[in-house]
Design brief:
Two copies of one chain form a homodimer. By secondary structure, chain A is an alpha/beta fold. Chain A has helices at residues 23-34, 48-58, 89-107, 124-130, 137-145, 173-176, 179-191, 222-235, 247-254, 267-278, 313-327, and strands spanning 10-15, 40-45, 70-73, 115-119, 151-155, 160-163, 204-207, 241-245, 261-264, 283-287, 292-296.
Chain lengths: 336, 336
Amino acid sequence: MSSKKKNRAVELVLTMGDPSGIGPEILAKAVREANSLEDISFTIVGDGDVISAAFRDFCPGVSLSGDPKFNLVDPGGELGDVIPGKPGEKGALKALLSIEKAAEIILSSSDPGSKVLVTAPVCKAEIARVRKGFVGHTEFLQQAAGVPFVTMAFVGEHLRVVPVTRHVPLRNVPSFLTKDLVMGTILQVVEERRKMTDINDPAIMVTALNPHAGEGGKIGNEEKEIIEPAIESAREIYPGIEGPLPSDVAFYSALSRPGSIVVAMYHDQCLGPFKMLDFANGVNVTLGLGFVRTSPDHGTAFNIAGMGVADANSMFMAVKTAVRAAAYPSGMDTNL
Amino acid sequence: MSSKKKNRAVELVLTMGDPSGIGPEILAKAVREANSLEDISFTIVGDGDVISAAFRDFCPGVSLSGDPKFNLVDPGGELGDVIPGKPGEKGALKALLSIEKAAEIILSSSDPGSKVLVTAPVCKAEIARVRKGFVGHTEFLQQAAGVPFVTMAFVGEHLRVVPVTRHVPLRNVPSFLTKDLVMGTILQVVEERRKMTDINDPAIMVTALNPHAGEGGKIGNEEKEIIEPAIESAREIYPGIEGPLPSDVAFYSALSRPGSIVVAMYHDQCLGPFKMLDFANGVNVTLGLGFVRTSPDHGTAFNIAGMGVADANSMFMAVKTAVRAAAYPSGMDTNL
C-alpha cells in the first residue's frame, strides 16, 4: 500500500469552460503558474481564438504553437462573437464540445493514469439548452467514462471533505441514505484517497446524520440503522474509519489530523464547515472516473468576466492537486 | 433605538453546575478574571463546601464571607461526598436546586434587568433521574420564567448564530419549520440582538433549508413557501434581514460583517460552521427569558474533573457576554 512510485510525467488536459466567463482567463493564469512544474505537458481544449487571446493577455511568454510542451486542441463548431459576462448557446455548445473532446483524449489513451483533466467553470443552465439532460461536469464525465458510481470530493488547505448525498432537498436526504450508499462512498474514498491527500493511510471520519450523533437513538435512528453498519463493513477493508461522529466535532477534529478526510451525509453539513476555512482555495475532485479530474470550486463569475481581475488560485490549486495525484499515485512526499 | 444608556451596576448570579464536573473549578477561575470588572457583584449559588474549596484553589485572594461584593447562597439539600468525575443523584439534585434558587433570586427581583445568570454545566441525564422531564437549563428556565418562546443563541469571537430548530432528528426538521417559527425566531433575535453583539443594528442573515437555497425550487420548496414569507414579514419590523441565503455563503459572508447574526434552520447547519472557528470560546445565550442568561458551550468534562486543568475561557466569555448585555443594554461601546 505504501510502496513508493517515482514521479512520472503528467499530461494536463484543460478545458476552457464557458468562453463568456472567467474560464479562459483563469486557465491561462493557472498555466503560467504551473509552467514551472517539472515533467508536465499541457493539452488545452477550447476555442483557438479565445484560448490564444487569453494566453496573450495572461500567460505571456508561452507560445502555444511553438513549444512542444503545449498542445492546443479546438473541438470545432462555430463560436461567433464572445461578449464577456453574456453567455449564449454557441459558447455553451463550444464549452460542451471541449469537455467531450477532453474526455475522449483521456479515455482513448493507452495510459489514462498519466493524463489528468482540469475543467474550468461552465454555465450549466446554458449547456442544458443545447444538450437536454446536462446537469454538470461530474454526471457528464461519469457517463462518458461508463462508470456506475462517482463521488464528489472537496479538497482545501485545511480540510478534505466528501458528501454522501449532493444536490438533494434536505427533506429527502434521510430516504436517500442507505447502508450501500454510505459504504460505497466510504470505500471509494478509501480507494482514491491519494487524489485528496499526501498521507498514505489517513483517518477517514464519518459524520452522523442527526445532532449529537443521535444521542443513542433519542434524536434519530439512522446512526444505528444505516451509518454504523456501513462503517463496520467498510472497516473490514480499511481500519482507519471513525464514526459516526457528531458533525461539528468531526470537522473541528479533522483540523488537527493531517490528511484526514471527513465523509459527511449531505451538502450543507459538509460544505458549511469546509467553506469557513477553504472558501477561496477549494478544489473539486471527482472520484471513481478511472482518471484524475479536478476543478475549481467556484462558478463562471460572469460579473467580472473580461476585466482581468479573476483570482486563479482555486484553478491553480486544481492543477496542483491533479498533478500531485497523477505523478505520485502511491503517496510519495512531494513539493507540490 | 440607539439612545445610549450609561453603564450600570450588574449582579452576576452564577450556578456551580454538577459538583463532580469542572463547573465549580471554571466558576472560580472565571470569577478570578471577572473580579477586575467595574460595578459588578457576585452571587454564587451552590454547595457551600464545594464552592469554598474551589475558590480556595482557583480564586485565591477572594474572601466569600468577608467581601460585600460576594454573596454565597447554598440552596440546601444534602450533598455527601463528591467524587470528581463520578456524577451521582445527590450532586445532580444539588445542581438542580442551585438553578432553581438562582432563577428565584432573579425573577423575584424588582429589577431583573440588572441581574444576569451564568450557569456552569450540569449532567442532564443525571438530573433527569431526580427530576422527571428535565431536559436542560433552557427549558427549565423557560418554565420558571413562564415565557412561551425562547431561542438558543451561540456567540463566539468570529460568529453569532441562532438555530431555528435544535435537537430535532434531521428527518423531522422540514416538518418543524413553519412561517411562524422562522419569523418568531428572527424577531426574537431582532428584539434581543444586544445580548449577542455590540452593534446596534447588525445584519441578520437567514439561511435556506436546502442546498444552493433550493436553486429556484429545483432542490426543494421550503425557501419559497416558508422562509421567504417569514423574512418578508419580519423585514417590516427590522429592515436589516437578508436571505434566504445558501448556508455556506451566509456563514462565510458573516465573517466579514461586524456584529452580523446568522439565523440557520437546524443544529448541524448552524453549529458546524460556528465550531470551526469558535470551538473553544463559544458562549450559549438564551433569548426570550426576560433576563440575561449565558453559559459556556461545553459540558461537565467529567474526564478532567478534579485535575485543576480545565480551561475556563468559555465560562469567562459567558460572564463577559452577560455583563456586557446587562450593563450596556442600548449598545454603548464597551471595553468588555
